[in-house]
Amino acid sequence: MIKKAFAYREAAPSVNKEEKKAAFDRSKNAVLNENGLDVLLVRNFDDLRVPTLAAYDAIILQYQDVERVYELLKAVRSSSFEEIYLKPCFILAYEAHVDPVVEQLSDGVLTEPSILSHFAKTENILEAMAEIADVKTDFTGRKLLLKLMRYLYSRQSPLVPVPSKRSHTGYAFPFLEANVKNYEYEEIFHLLEAGVQRGFLSEDFVDVMHLCSKCNSGFINYREVCPKCNTRKLTAQNTIHHFVCGNVGPESDYKENGKLVCPKCDRQLRHIGVDYDKPSLVVECENGHIFQEPNMETFCFNCHSVGQIEDIVEQPANEYHLTASGAETALSGKAKVKEEQKLADGFVSLPVFRTFLKLEIERLKLNDIHTTVSYISLLLSPATLKKHEDNYEDFRNDLGTLLVEQLKPSEIATMLDDDVFLVISPEGEEEPTKQRFKEICERITGVLVNSLDGNKADRVAYGSFEVEADNESESVMMQINEKLKVF
Ligand SMILES: [Zn+2]
Ligand SMILES: [Zn+2]
Ligand SMILES: [Zn+2]
């Protein structure tokens, strides 16, 4: 039961004149209070800063400029904070048609400035957000797969591919695309595959996309070309079979002063089906080659590469549902509750690492020195993860040992989760350290692919940044966290 009708907040006695004016001014943003929820009605996108959205329970975006609404929703969904990216957001479209990709980033389309028509849904999302907010997120918690699981959990609905010309492939996954830079579609495919492999997501077939093998674009022209000279200038015509004399030839050979005359026996053709027939088509190219079946060639409108039809990549466009294990992970922020990790030789535990980091920052304050922190993240393909399912810890420790062997004696290394190593390099400046870690990671990748049963899809990402004397050790950890956000 709805106890009270919604009221503009300016009706409350405590609100000042400025706010009162704002609520009536159709070019300004306003706050509505609906059933105890604070709802921000956004009409002016210029005045809006995404972090401030955390202050409201729900957001309504007026749909006047589709691109502004799209940009804002992408900014919301790509935030790394649960209070922002899970925020219930609605589109106020009145009668307008809403772009389906933009709509999918929202929680519904409204015809009047009120969320009451979607109140139960809003409450469910807010409840899920409260459940998740209580979980102390570890590093895994910032990564895109977990983020997706939390989004799906809070929405209680599957991830659906949306056919759209906005999408690079033809099928958009708007939530993921908002989070992945520069059309890194491979990243999206790998992520969904990993989600299924790890049992967090289940997939339902929707369609198969046909994508450019060079750039994954779905915007492809299928061309018919001459099998001999590859030209695209082709003309097709019927063949004529003259029953009387048995001659078969292209229709053009029979044309004579507007009549059809057999070039072999000179008789005029009379009735199709009676004295002659058109059994098939022949194709002739501009260079005079005659054939029946042209070759097919593909042309990618995005990267302009020309290819064979066999090269086209078939990529399933599935619908993804959160599994029970996925829901559990969404709430716990941990892939599985594990016993104490067995650390490889040469690694310190995470608490010890944090202590070192604190001490290092203290040292920076007193001395003119440089300290750099680096992360090495194992982005293993689902196939490799599957192969090492039963001995993952040993496998990971082998890679860890390989790393430690290449470190300087003064460097401190720890492990995060299953797949990230962190290293403090005291007296290391950012650029040379980065260069060293680049080489170290190349060696690790080499061993991984050549001796540890890995494959080409396995990647080792790394990054280094110098710690500033005014950093807090926690803010350094947050910084690493941000960089590890994707996957
Ligand atoms: Zn030709
Ligand atoms: Zn004839
Ligand atoms: Zn392409």
Biggest sheet, spatial arrangement of strands: 1-2-3-4-5-6
Poorly predicted runs of 5 or more residues: 1-16
Bound molecules: zinc ion
Number of helices: 15
Q: What is the count of distinct domains?
A: 3
Write the layout of secondary structure elements.
Layout: E1 7-8, H1 17-24, E2 30-34, E3 37-42, E4 58-62, H2 66-77, H3 82-85, E5 89-92, H4 100-105, E6 109-110, H5 119-133, H6 144-155, E7 162-163, E8 171-172, H7 174-179, H8 185-197, E9 201-211, E10 220-225, E11 234-242, E12 248-250, H9 251-254, E13 255-256, E14 259-260, E15 276-277, E16 281-285, E17 290-291, E18 295-300, E19 306-308, E20 313-322, H10 324-332, E21 347-348, H11 350-366, E22 371-379, H12 382-387, H13 392-405, E23 412-416, E24 420-426, H14 430-451, E25 459-466, H15 473-483
Parallel strand pairs: 3-4, 4-5, 5-6, 21-23
Antiparallel strand pairs: 1-2, 2-3, 7-8, 9-20, 10-18, 11-12, 11-15, 11-16, 13-14, 16-17, 18-19, 22-24, 22-25, 23-24
